[in-house]
Task: inverse folding
């Protein structure tokens, strides 16, 4: 999401980012358990992506301590969010106040103010508990679910979905980032109730232990199987070639390019936008400017038809 938002914030859009609170690993997991707050890591990344600040400040907020008893492993941004929660009185107000300080272009909202626990039922019948543990198990995922199942959605998030002219889901870890948002009661219904254009941005690479050998169609079928509806009007996919040296690097980690099985995606009833969207620096990521242009074109086209 953060990569996509860096491109979208340069467009004339009113953005609301709705972020999962299922993270239980690393610094976020420690702060979640010790301070009884929603995990701040994903929210921190999105705030920084939307912030209008000097690069040095962004680097500072992403800085992760490597030494110090109790400090090692924590990112400064996570600690600031935890402090803002205490200063302001609640986590949501803390996000709003830090957004103001960082001149964030848009709003950042958690899906729920409750810390949810993500669980996965694997195809071998094993139940794996914890977002950070699911990809490490090494089996194929049959389904994921949250506890508590009736976690209360943030009403600001529901309202933002209902009022949106476009709803964009992805890119991100299918089972451990996207699904936890959709499993919060009320979120899917709000999406279905909206007359906006609904867009799915598919990942460029598979994720080991989570989407091994998945095609674009497999991503969409997994979402349909969990929410029991076809949510999207359009699917944005990468159809560009990944250089062999990059493919080899990812193959060593058990990942490969997601196959753009456009005929199957069309058979499922989705309209497809395909383009060479991959960029490589340290990792393969979406070209945020190209991606944002496609999203804006779909939004404007949809508005033109509905108008």
Result:
């Amino acid at each position: 999401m953060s990569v996509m938002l860096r491109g979208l914030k340069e467009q004339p859009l009113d953005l609301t980012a709705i972020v999962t609170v299922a993270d239980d690993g690393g610094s976020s997991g420690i702060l979640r358990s010790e301070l009884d707050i929603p995990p701040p890591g994903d929210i921190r990344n999105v705030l920084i992506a939307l912030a209008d600040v000097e690069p040095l400040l962004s680097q500072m907020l992403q800085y992760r301590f490597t030494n110090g008893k109790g400090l090692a492993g924590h990112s400064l941004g996570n600690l600031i969010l935890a402090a803002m929660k205490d200063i302001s009185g609640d986590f949501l107000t803390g996000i709003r106040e830090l957004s103001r300080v960082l001149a964030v272009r848009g709003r950042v909202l958690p899906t729920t103010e409750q810390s949810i626990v993500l669980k996965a039922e694997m195809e071998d019948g094993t139940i794996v508990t914890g977002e950070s543990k699911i990809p490490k198990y090494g089996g194929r995922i049959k389904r994921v679910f949250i506890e508590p199942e009736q976690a209360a959605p943030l009403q600001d998030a529901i309202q933002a979905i209902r009022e949106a002219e476009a709803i964009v889901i992805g890119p991100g870890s299918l089972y451990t980032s996207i699904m936890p948002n959709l499993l919060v009661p009320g979120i899917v219904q709000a999406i279905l109730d909206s007359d906006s254009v609904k867009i799915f941005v598919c990942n460029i690479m598979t994720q080991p232990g989570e989407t091994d050998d998945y095609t674009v169609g497999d991503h969409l079928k997994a979402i349909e199987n969990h929410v029991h509806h076809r949510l999207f009007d359009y699917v944005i996919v990468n159809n560009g070639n990944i250089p062999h040296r990059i493919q080899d690097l990812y193959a060593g980690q058990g990942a490969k390019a997601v196959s753009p099985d456009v005929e199957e995606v069309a058979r499922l009833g989705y309209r497809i936008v395909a383009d060479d969207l991959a960029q490589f620096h340290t990792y393969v990521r979406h070209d945020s400017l190209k991606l944002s242009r496609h999203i804006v074109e779909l939004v404007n086209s949809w508005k033109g038809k509905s108008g």
User: Anything to note?
Assistant: The chain has a mean pLDDT of 93. The chain is about 45% helix and 15% strand.
